[in-house]
Design goal:
This protein has 243 residues and is an alpha/beta fold. The chain has a single domain, classed as Vaccinia Virus protein VP39 (Rossmann fold, 3-Layer(aba) Sandwich). The protein has a seven-stranded mixed beta sheet. Strand 1, helix 3 and strand 2 form a beta-alpha-beta unit. It starts with a helix and ends with a strand. 36% of the residues are buried. It comes from Rhizobium setariae. Keywords: Methyltransferase, Transferase. InterPro entries: SAM-dependent_MTases_sf (IPR029063). Pfam families: Methyltransf_23.
């Protein structure tokens, strides 16, 4: 990502509705795994560290990040020693494999997604899982994706294919950020009509808007505990090496 995007993320990810609600959904998903105490967990692409305190609740955490500024910031705010790592071939050597590897809106930044998942599969314990979130729908591509250095947005088919090709078993695939999907489409249509390019970044909206969007997005958490959602702005996949 551009340096400005990392700095904006650092400034807003503890207050922005999207980060707050996504962490709620991530936490619920990890709870459902019933990880043993002191499970080894790795976050790949930790960014500025917004998820690290959450992940520490579930086990012994390691983290990697390619960007120098983001890595230093994440280490400072979380106390986790975030190491340099770049997929697929420049991950650090750890003294153990992992019960859970997390990639939260990271895979779309990686040019070689299949090769990267194949490498990460070798870092799992038997029965270990990889938890992935990515942006959905290639037709929603905007200049904002380019600024964030995305290589792609995913469909259910492209995400499931790359997971299966990497030798992982796809245990769950669902959309999320579903309830705000109509508003996102409307905003896109209005932007196109007005000749605006791109889409808003992660800057903090007015307080009442931020609060309302957080409430709406978080309300999906109970639904996602029981079922997979058929459409939404993002995709979440759980894959394992049980196969």
């Amino acid at each position: 990502m551009e340096q400005t995007a990392y700095r904006e993320m650092a400034a807003t990810e503890q207050a922005h509705w999207w980060f707050l609600a996504r962490r709620k959904i991530i936490a619920d998903t990890i709870k459902s795994f019933n990880l043993p105490p002191h499970s080894k967990i790795l976050e790949v692409g930790a960014g500025t560290g917004g998820n690290l305190k959450l992940l520490q609740r579930f086990g012994d955490l390691s983290a990697v990040e390619m960007d120098d500024y983001a890595r230093a910031y994440a280490t400072q705010v979380s106390g986790v020693g975030v190491e340099y790592g770049l997929l697929p071939n420049s991950l650090p050597t750890f003294p153990h494999n992992f019960q859970l590897i997390c990639m939260f809106d990271v895979l779309e930044h990686v040019e070689k997604d299949f090769e990267s998942l194949k490498v990460l599969a070798t870092r799992l314990n038997p029965g270990g899982r990889i938890l992935i979130t990515v942006p959905a729908y290639p037709w929603m591509w905007t200049d904002h994706d380019a600024v964030l250095h995305h290589h792609r947005r995913y469909t259910r088919t492209t995400l499931s294919n790359v997971i299966n090709r990497a030798g992982l078993q796809l245990d769950r695939l669902t959309n999320f950020n579903t309830l705000l999907f109509p508003a996102a489409i409307a905003a896109r249509l209005v932007g196109n009509a007005l000749g605006k390019k791109g889409s808003p970044g992660s800057s903090l909206p007015p307080r009442f808007v931020n609060s309302a969007f957080e409430t709406i997005f978080k309300s999906e958490a109970p639904m996602l505990r029981r079922l997979n959602l058929p459409f939404g702005l993002s995709l979440m996949a759980v894959a394992s090496n049980y196969a």
